[in-house]
Design goal:
Elements: H1 3-16, H2 19-26, H3 30-44, E1 49-51, E2 56-58, H4 60-84, E3 92-98, H5 102-117, E4 121-127, E5 141-145, E6 153-161, E7 163-167, H6 169-175, E8 191-192, E9 200-205, E10 208-213, E11 219-220, H7 223-231, E12 237-240, H8 241-249, E13 254-256, E14 265-272, H9 279-294
Parallel strand pairs: 3-4, 3-5, 8-11
Antiparallel strand pairs: 1-2, 5-14, 6-14, 7-12, 7-13, 9-10
Helix pairs in contact: 1-2, 1-3, 1-4, 2-3, 5-9
Amino acid sequence: MDKIDDLEAFLAVVEAGSLTAAARRLGRSLQAVSRSLATLEQSIGVELIRRTTRQSHPTDAGLAFHRRVKPAFDEIVGARLEAASRSAEPSGHLTIGAPVLFGPAQLVPIIARFMERHPRIEISLKLSDRFADLQDDNLDLAVRIGELPDTDLMAKRLGALRRVVFGAPSYFARQGRPDHPDALAGHCCIVRTAGADADTWPFLIDGRHRAVKVTGRFRADSTAATYQAVALGLGIGFTPLWQIRDLVDQGVVDIVLEAFEPPRAPIHVVWPASRLPLAKSRLFIDFLAAELKAERL
């Protein structure tokens, strides 16, 4: 037996609750499992499992060791399988978290292309605008927009999102185009009331971050409603560009104040630092990074 088999025996004993159950799970003899466990404990120099007549309980050292070793063992097993069958189609299940609007509009088309390329991979998508706890929500990966808070998660930057000021040509024909963020004080601005600072828009003016207060006659708590209001010429809006890209391409709205746009909001994919991403996760991360790079965000 090699050291991997010794680790496998230890993990099975912790998870099955006894040497006998572990031997049954692994299809190995009770003596072989006991020998692997003893070999592992001898090499580490500490008792990992406290044996009784009917049950086996991990010691505190055993619990800590299991917590650190289990993710690494899963990765090793995945790497072995991948190396042993390079030509085999990757398979398995991925659970991915994403923001409520970004997920359907941007992520689902990419997931569809990924699943078409890898028909044996299954994906569950969970949508939420809060920074969900990956472990509590059983997420393998999560896509997050904005600066990441201090966290123990691993992350890969996927790109960044433009945030723009926009309006309908009919509105600009009546009211003129603002040439500076301060000029918004003389314009009707469409405010989405769901955010805490909805009536304060960020800009970069003379190299400095500045928040500009805006007002208008129409407000709504729905993103779709604010976009429709802007398209109908009720006023000027502010939003991530990807959400109105179709309206811009169709000429329904125009972008203004481009010279004063705030810094782009970063997009990351994150995963738990306690474990290396499995092969199927790495496959999706690489695919997602390549696909988003080609998008006009």
